[in-house]
């Protein structure tokens, strides 16, 4: 088995992509922590894994608090001896256009995605650093790379996860811990309503529906990439952001800096800046 004797905690694994990752890792021999906030959903996945011969323990906790993140990781260590793989997958959607977005909707999304990635990572690092071994996979989104209308909270959280991924990769490189991110496009029970809404909106306005953009894969395809990144032979890969969209897997490059103008006088002048640097952008 590819992940024999490995322990893995997958947050938000009671449904969707997280569930697929938990099941797939268990199939490859990993001892799995299944997490979610709905106890019945969590236990359903645990039982599914156990009935297939796998090892799983459920933790019904929110990743949005330090205590919740600590409970998820401490359970993995107590049950399995240590934590080898952490998949920060937990997430929710509260989509609204910016001027209609409430503080409650902002906090709910940012706390689950961004803070949740921190709470679990922070709890896992002492064990991973001690053993000089570990794999962290953060689930991000193209919304964090180029923005999405109506997803200010979600886009901000996912962009923050990118920064966390790159920083953690630098900090942990000398400890044998790989940190990568996956930006998946998969049709799940959470994403389906939004895809259908986009289709309806396109039809009602007479616009074409961009089938290429909305080409979505399955949770199982995203799970297979997560397993691949968890393999011992993949541990040298770190600080990378991968996309998985149906049959395609890609690599996002980090932002590149381009020089626009060089000051040739004692002080910059706003009009001169516009002429030299901004004319070709507007």
Automatic annotation (TrEMBL):
Presence of keyword Ribonucleoprotein: no
Q: Which residues, if any, are the signal sequence?
A: none
Q: Note the Gene3D superfamilies from the entry.
A: NAD(P)-binding Rossmann-like Domain
Q: Name one GO molecular function term.
A: oxidoreductase activity
SMART domains attached to this UniProt entry: PKS_KR
For this UniProt record, give its keywords in alphabetical order, as a comma-separated list: Oxidoreductase
Family annotation (InterPro entries): KR_dom (IPR057326), NAD(P)-bd_dom_sf (IPR036291), Peroxisomal_Beta-Oxidation (IPR051687), Sc_DH/Rdtase_CS (IPR020904), SDR_fam (IPR002347)
Q: Name one Pfam family in it.
A: adh_short
Q: Specify whether Oxidoreductase is a keyword of the entry.
A: yes
Q: Which domain of life is it from?
A: Bacteria
Where the record annotates domain Ketoreductase, the positions are 6-185
The record's family statement is:
Belongs to the short-chain dehydrogenases/reductases (SDR) family.
Name the UniProt record assigns to this protein: SDR family NAD(P)-dependent oxidoreductase
The scientific name of the source species is Paenibacillus lentus
């Amino acid at each position: 088995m590819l992940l024999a004797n490995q322990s893995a905690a997958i947050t938000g694994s009671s449904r969707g992509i997280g569930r697929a990752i938990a099941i797939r890792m268990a199939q490859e021999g990993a001892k799995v922590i299944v997490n979610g906030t709905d106890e019945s959903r969590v236990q359903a996945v645990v039982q599914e894994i156990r009935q297939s011969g796998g090892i799983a323990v459920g933790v019904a906790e929110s990743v949005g608090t330090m205590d919740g993140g600590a409970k998820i990781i401490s359970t993995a260590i107590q049950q399995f001896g240590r934590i080898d793989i952490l998949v920060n997958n937990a997430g929710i959607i509260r989509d609204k256009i910016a001027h209609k977005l409430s503080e409650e909707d902002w906090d709910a999304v940012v706390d689950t995605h961004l803070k949740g990635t921190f709470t679990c990572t922070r709890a896992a690092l002492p064990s991973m650093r001690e053993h000089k071994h570990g794999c962290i996979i953060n689930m991000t989104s193209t919304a964090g790379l180029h923005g999405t209308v109506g997803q200010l909270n979600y886009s901000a959280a996912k962009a923050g996860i990118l920064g966390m991924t790159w920083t953690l990769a630098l900090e942990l490189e000398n400890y044998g811990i790989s940190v990568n991110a996956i930006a998946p496009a998969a049709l799940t029970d959470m994403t389906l309503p939004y895809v259908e809404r986009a289709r309806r909106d396109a039809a009602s306005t007479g616009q074409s529906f961009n089938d290429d953009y909305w080409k979505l894969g399955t949770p199982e395809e995203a799970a297979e990439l997560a397993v691949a990144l968890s393999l011992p032979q993949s541990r040298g890969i770190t600080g990378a952001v991968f996309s998985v969209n149906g049959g395609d897997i890609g690599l996002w490059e980090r932002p590149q800096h381009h020089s626009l103008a060089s000051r040739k006088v004692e002080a910059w002048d706003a009009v001169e800046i516009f002429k030299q640097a901004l004319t070709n952008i507007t």
